Amino acid sequence: MKEQILKMLRANQNEYLSGEELCRRFNVSRTAIWKHIKDLQEEGYEIDAVRNKGYRLVSAPDIVTAAEIREGLSTRRLGQHIVAVKELDSTNVLAAKLAETGEPDGTLVIADCQTGGKGRRGKAWFSPPGTGIWMSLILRPHLPLAQAPQLTLVAAVAVGQVLSDLAGHRAGIKWPNDILFEDRKCCGILTEMNMESEEITRVIVGIGINVNQTEIEFPDELRDIATSLRIVAGRPFHRAKVVQRILERFELLYDQYAEYGSFAPIREQWKQQSITLGRYVSAHTPRGLLTGLAVDIDEMGALVLETDSGRQKVYSADIQVS
């Protein structure tokens, strides 16, 4: 009911909505309505309450709740089911647990704060409250195992395009999963999968974005290598609206990818955003260090390096770009 009351307040934002009308609409007492109004106020919504006039929504807080994300969301699947929590260890961990219990394709898990956010290869991800977007999507694509890396690249294209649009500056993709502005990291993407009989049955796509941090809010060890959307654009953003834009763009590209049955149409968009291609790379692979000029990504999403011993493909690695 609280979410429905909020929706009515939004729809009538320029006028007062009487308590009597709300009581009639939801068939509850004035006390029940007042309780929900108080709950909304405690969440940060500024609601003007005037005797004999009713309630009017003045402003909404920058929070990443299901109600805020759903408001105006135009997707068909992604984000149509949302699990939003204030704090947890990792959205990827919770999303994996929920996927095991049958949560549907497109379910979004999002937190205001992570205490154990994860990056690639077990690295920690700085996820303070009230500043960023820490979210994971449950996807059920039923793809061959060899196509698993491509989903990370599709997500990177979607996020990179949205961040570029919002910031008014080009966001570049560092293979395979980082979004940077002028060589400072703004976003990381981590995909984890489950498979049966050589077919992917479940993928968790974790996306962490620095949105409203200022430089001083980053730890000393991150200050020279990390950035946020706010720092780049020079203004703060309503995080729920950023989430909406990402879900909408990702669904569009994901559907194109699924319909085409190949990474080919997304591959060209990835190459346009790449800040890896054309530069020398040191790739720390499971087989050891590989260095060379990044010249392409292949149709499966592998990075192609021109090395002293010829062309080599990198499927998984931590890379440094020079």
From TrEMBL:
Chain residues forming the annotated DNA-binding region: 19-38
GO molecular function: ATP binding; biotin--[biotin carboxyl-carrier protein] ligase activity; DNA binding; transferase activity
Pfam families: BPL_C, BPL_LplA_LipB, HTH_11
Keyword Nucleus: no
Record domain BPL/LPL catalytic: where: 67-258
EC number, UniProt record: 6.3.4.15
PROSITE patterns documented for this protein: BPL_LPL_CATALYTIC
Cleavable signal peptide: none
GO cellular component, one term: cytoplasm
Keywords for this protein: ATP-binding, Biotin, DNA-binding, Ligase, Nucleotide-binding, Repressor, Transcription, Transcription regulation
UniProt binding sites for biotin: S90, T91, N92, Q114, K185
Catalytic activity: biotin + L-lysyl-[protein] + ATP = N(6)-biotinyl-L-lysyl-[protein] + AMP + diphosphate + H(+)
GO process annotations (BP): protein lipoylation; regulation of DNA-templated transcription
UniProt xrefs under InterPro entries: aa-tRNA-synth_II/BPL/LPL, ArsR-like_HTH, Bifunct_BirA, Biotin_CoA_COase_ligase, BPL_C, BPL_LPL_catalytic, HTH_11, Transcriptional_repressor_C
NCBIfam families: birA_ligase
Annotated PANTHER family: BIOTIN PROTEIN LIGASE (PTHR12835), BIOTIN--PROTEIN LIGASE (PTHR12835:SF5)
Family assignment from sequence similarity: Belongs to the biotin--protein ligase family.
Function: Acts both as a biotin--[acetyl-CoA-carboxylase] ligase and a repressor.
Name this polypeptide is given: Bifunctional ligase/repressor BirA
